Amino acid sequence: MVTFLPSRPGRLADVPSFDRDIGGAESNVACALARTGHTARWVSRVGTDGFGDHLLATIAGHGVDVSHVQRDPRRPTGIYFRTAGERATGVAGEEPGRAEVVYYRAGSAASAMTPGLLDADALRGTRIVHLTGITAALSDGCLDVLRTLTRRTPGRPLVSFDVNYRVGLWRDPAQGPGVLLDLARGCDLVFVGEDEAAAAWDLHGPAAVRAALPEPATLVIKQGAEGATVYARQEDGTDTVTTAPALAVEVVAPVGAGDAFAAGFLSATLRALPVFARIRHGHLMAAASLTVPGDLGTPPSRALADGLAALDSADWGTLRLGPGWTTDGVRTARVEVPAQ
Q: One of 21, 188, 259, 295 is an active-site residue; which one?
């Protein structure tokens, strides 16, 4: 989608102007992976309008293959407007001041996706297929696409799924939680926020989420500023449970951090790094997004990310990341040692 970000804080009713950017969970992940040296392809549909031109040019500019994106002359490219702040999840007792988000996606080109979009060439040679629950909410055709891709078939690539529960996107809000749980059960790697699991499924704590989702070989439960917990299935059928704390970050805007975390974790997965390192790379990529206004931060170089991910727990805990840290790592990705 094309994203419109507010030029100043305030309610949507009060913001006088917006800056154009790009957004979309799957394309965010593809862009981040391409910028960290991986081969990434984005498969979708956009309109033949100027917003579609902008999306394709920008995503391709990040190094993503967009040759399998269809153009629709009858339907527009989707757009959305948002204010600053954390996105509301709908969980009871949620603090006030969450971001306002308004989608204009009904009847968009992307909402007309069907399984016929998935030609063999689009998936040929793929090691990981990454999907999100946002796409499932757009239309029955989009849901059919995800059901096709999450069907367990011999020889399929690793299927990654970010739950991305967005209650405002579902035409029938009561439908979303059950659909997302069924889709997640068909995947190999699942990302879900602890707050999402509470809002969608009334599940509280990593153990409860794992009990409800035993099928994925890897289950990543994001716990916000606290960190993340990963359940990884072993050959004997048992799980290893790995927890890694998040970083201290000077947050500019929270938008896109979940997609960035997924990209960092997937990048480390493609490199066959240990689970603990995968979580840390997720945190580092999320920190790159958190320290910029839009969805896409500048990823740290592989050398910088590997160096920071290898820090011992004490040095990791004193790391402080602010705007510009990915391009000026010596100055802003410093280890601060408390005075004795």
A: 259
